[in-house]
Amino acid sequence: MAEATKFVPKGILLDVDGTLTNSKREFSPKIIQVIKNLSKTGISCGVSTSRHYAFIKNYILPHFPKDSLHITSGGGQIVTSSGQIIWQNVIDEKLVKELIQKVEQLGGAVIFGTGSNLYCSDSIYDNVRNHPWKIDVFPVSYATSYEITLLSVVQINPDIKKYIKSIKSISNWLLKNSSGGEYFDICAKGVNKLTAARIWCRQLGLGLKDIMAVGDNENDYELISNVGYGVVMGNSPVRLKMVAKKVIGFSDEGALVKFLMSLLMRNKSHG
């Protein structure tokens, strides 16, 4: 079992893809139970993900306490498990429309959420509709609002990379999924998981140094660097491992479950 840390968190923020879920996008029963047990000890548990609420509302969030708070949209939004918006920072609506039009013209595809619904380009609609997380998804043409906190761009090519990197009024991350494919996550300027974590902490009466965060990708860098105890998965980029307090194994090997169970047992023995 992974060695327990001596750090006793008052809050824990958990990345979703590649951290809470494995390469098959599955959320194990053991993870569900350990989250419940940690919550019972008084530790505030929530996700910190680049996914929009609409992407995780049916599969991930039901396993957290109803009153728990979650960072979604790469730091663009804080919501409850039931979807109540506590705080958000939206991308300029005119720019969103321009981004969608230009990306699709260049051969890419987009995904974004508003409220409880997810929208995506026609070219990827069937793939998203068949996602195992039972997502309520519609074609982009069905969207009636473009007040969004996150725009994800997939099927990217050199022209799309050049275009997105040329826009200075946004925050963007070029990331890789579990299959190695590249995609962009785009938020309002200055938004990241750390900026949202400061607000998450204030809502819960905590300080950044009171919390633990677990992640595995480049968009976790600022958060992992600044919390009281940063933990990263074994598949994380080297840059992320260098700023973490602890590197654990891989999600497919149950590394997060082992680590959190170890933490839980230690906290109980010192409670």
From TrEMBL:
<dbReference type="GO" id="GO:0016791">
    <property type="term" value="F:phosphatase activity"/>
</dbReference>
<protein>
    <submittedName>
        <fullName>Uncharacterized protein</fullName>
    </submittedName>
</protein>
<dbReference type="InterPro" id="IPR006379">
    <property type="entry name" value="HAD-SF_hydro_IIB"/>
</dbReference>
<dbReference type="GO" id="GO:0000287">
    <property type="term" value="F:magnesium ion binding"/>
</dbReference>
<dbReference type="InterPro" id="IPR036412">
    <property type="entry name" value="HAD-like_sf"/>
</dbReference>
<dbReference type="GO" id="GO:0005829">
    <property type="term" value="C:cytosol"/>
</dbReference>
<dbReference type="Pfam" id="PF08282">
    <property type="entry name" value="Hydrolase_3"/>
</dbReference>
<dbReference type="InterPro" id="IPR023214">
    <property type="entry name" value="HAD_sf"/>
</dbReference>
